[in-house]
Design goal:
Blueprint: H1 3-8, H2 13-44, H3 47-52, H4 58-79, H5 101-120, H6 128-135, H7 137-156, H8 158-181, H9 184-189, E1 210-213, H10 223-227, E2 232-234, E3 240-242, H11 251-260, E4 266-269
Antiparallel strand pairs: 1-4, 2-3
């Protein structure tokens, strides 16, 4: 677009450049948000293990989420540099202040994502199940982000609508293609999957469990103690003390502790289904 056309439309060259940056960062944030959602779903449902033979690590999900927040922050910040004031000051983080409904949806989504990112580091201070319930607000944030993106694309041009539609379709295809095409060794080196190849046992939930901890993997973070304090205990000397046969009444807490361990150091054995 030439400068003359831009000026004729009432938008100066500076604003045109800033809008291009805002649009590019918005598309990047949308793609990364879709990739984050896909990785989380494929991790939770076990698809990554079925495709690669390895258990997915939360690190990949967290890295994608961090990049999503960075791109979304760049998109919001760019609007502050427009000569034509679309948002000013606190309007970029407080919804409904500038009167635009679609902007409010995006602001609420961004605020929720930031809150979830902050509380991710507080995992050890809460029970895993309680923390997980708050973390699941990410699905609401993603839904609001999607609505914000589509409303923005609809308000701008047909080209933007095609961009959003293409990125929506591309995200799951990119993740699945990477899982199938990339060698597991590469995924392990990138820290996206672990090096275990043995399939997990499907254990009877009502049967007694036997707990064992791999001391080479355990980093004494204490997440297990938060989930099952009467089964796991971090001593003052830094060693982990645990009950090998906790009893069926503690099965749910022990399973939560095993899921919460970021190093996958807790192994559970028992009666197979």
């Amino acid at each position: 677009m030439s400068v003359d056309v831009v000026l004729a439309a009432g938008i100066n060259a500076h604003d045109n450049g800033v809008r291009e940056i805002a649009a590019l960062s918005a598309r990047l944030a949308y793609l990364l948000m879709c990739l984050t959602l896909c990785w989380g779903v494929l991790t939770a449902t076990g698809w990554v293990r079925r495709v690669t033979g390895h258990q997915a690590l939360r690190g990949g999900h967290m890295v994608l989420a961090a990049f999503t927040l960075g791109a979304a922050g760049m998109h919001a910040s760019a609007l502050l540099f427009l000569d034509e004031r679309v948002v000013t000051g606190f309007q970029v983080v407080v919804p409904f202040m500038n009167g635009e409904f679609r902007h409010a949806l995006g602001i609420i989504a961004f605020d929720l994502m930031v809150a979830i990112a902050i509380t991710a580091g507080l995992h050890r201070f809460f029970r895993y199940r309680n923390w997980l319930r708050f973390h699941q607000l990410a699905y609401a944030a993603i839904a609001l982000g999607v609505a914000h993106s589509w409303l923005g694309a609809w308000a701008n041009s047909d080209v933007d609508r095609w961009w959003i539609a293409g990125l929506t379709a591309a995200a799951p295809a990119l993740v699945l293609a990477a899982m199938r095409a990339a060698p597991p060794v590469l995924l392990i080196r990138l820290g996206l999957v672990d090096g275990e190849t043995a399939p997990p046992e499907r254990l009877d939930k009502s049967a007694p469990l036997v707990v064992s901890v791999d001391n080479q993997r355990c980093h004494r973070y204490g997440f297990c103690q938060t989930e099952a304090p009467d089964v796991f205990h971090l001593r003052e000397d830094g060693r982990l003390q645990y009950r090998q046969h906790p009893g069926t009444a503690r099965n749910q807490d022990v399973r939560s502790a095993a899921r919460a361990c970021p190093m996958r150091a807790i192994q559970l054995t028992g009666v197979r289904r």
